[in-house]
TrEMBL record:
One term of GO molecular function: acyltransferase activity
Gene Ontology cellular-component terms listed: plasma membrane
Species this chain originates from: Ciceribacter ferrooxidans
Compartments reported by the entry: Cell inner membrane
Matching PANTHER family: LIPID A BIOSYNTHESIS LAUROYL ACYLTRANSFERASE, LIPID A BIOSYNTHESIS LAUROYLTRANSFERASE
GO BP annotation list: glycolipid biosynthetic process
Keywords: Acyltransferase, Cell inner membrane, Cell membrane, Membrane, Transferase
Protein name listed in UniProt: Lipid A biosynthesis lauroyl acyltransferase
Length: 312
């Protein structure tokens, strides 16, 4: 009897995930009917209306209250609503990503995409060697590996699949066609990235995700656990590490930036300091978020407080 009940519960869960996925796919299919700009703007408007009515809005406001205490409650509410709008844009931009990425080195400034750091892209492409690029969930971060591929610079991208398996499959297929090699985040992902670096290739990593067992660091002055993977890979392969980010501009435009390599902290014996490097990554991401707070995904439970808020 117990086994039967378990099967029923699992079947209902799978059905719920399937239904959510179909609703999401249906919404995106409808958006395809519209031109890119009206569709993206509509998704922004819709999420600004729907997002604040969800339980996650409470987590967003708590995150903002903890991270930006100098802001007023009204300012934090404004940032939260704008962040919902940017999430809507991110979803809609999946549909139009091939149209959005129109960067042409010969016509810089005339399209939707502008790129800062072109010499670095070309230098990494023309002088192959192991390297790591890190970014965060700011604006449309999906455009960064697309930009690398446009320059002929293919990296192995570590990503965390969505919890919904039906959505995860679609997202994986979409990314695989445009972003080079994808490495789902799981127990063996570090070995896949290590093999790429050992072969002289590049790796891309998101460094602002929730992590339960990482090294103890701080983010916006509050304790967090940070994944030490990037620091350990950089130590093992003695490779350069580059920050990169996407900034959403008015008029559904974007600026993609790759910055010069960062100097990683060392211990007194000259070894790369894993904990200090993890903190350095957090500090860089924090500086980006402070500059454009509405473009970060505040609904992420980066500080592991969801349980105390009883949020689903």
């Amino acid at each position: 009897m117990k086994l039967f009940v378990t099967r029923i519960v699992l079947a209902l869960r799978h059905f719920q995930q399937w239904l959510v996925a179909q609703l999401a796919f249906g919404f995106l299919t409808v958006l395809k009917i519209l031109p890119a700009d009206p569709a993206i703007n509509f998704a922004d408007w819709l999420m600004r209306k729907v997002g604040p009515r969800t339980r996650r809005h409470g987590l967003m406001l708590t995150n903002l209250r903890n991270a930006l205490p100098e802001k007023s409650e009204a300012e934090r509410e404004e940032i939260a609503i704008a962040s919902w709008g940017h999430m809507g844009r991110l979803a809609a931009e999946y549909v139009f990503l091939d149209q959005l990425f129109d960067f042409d080195p010969e016509r810089q400034g005339e399209g939707r995409i502008e790129v800062s750091g072109i010499p670095l892209f070309l230098e990494l492409r023309d002088h192959p060697r192991p390297f790591i690029v890190f970014t965060a969930h700011t604006a449309n971060f999906e455009l960064l590996p697309v930009a690398g591929a446009a320059f002929g610079l293919y990296v192995s991208v570590l990503f965390r699949p969505p919890n919904n398996p039906y959505i995860a499959e679609k997202v994986f297929d979409f990314r695989k066609k445009r972003m080079g090699k994808l490495v789902p985040s799981h127990a063996g992902s570090s070995f896949a990235l290590a093999r790429q670096l050992e072969a002289g290739g590049g790796v891309g990593v998101l460094v602002d995700q929730k992590f339960k067992k990482g090294v103890t660091t701080s983010f916006f002055g509050r304790p967090v656990k940070t994944n030490p993977l990037l620091a350990k890979l950089a130590r093992q392969f003695d490779c350069d590490v580059y920050p990169a980010r996407c900034i959403r501009l008015p008029g559904n435009r974007f600026r993609l930036e790759i910055e010069p390599k960062i100097e990683l902290p060392r211990t007194a014996t000259g070894q790369l300091d894993v904990t200090a490097t993890a903190q350095l990554l957090n500090d860089k991401v924090e500086s980006w978020v402070r500059e454009y707070p509405e473009q970060w995904l505040w609904y992420h439970d980066r500080w592991n407080i969801k349980q105390s808020l009883d949020l689903g």
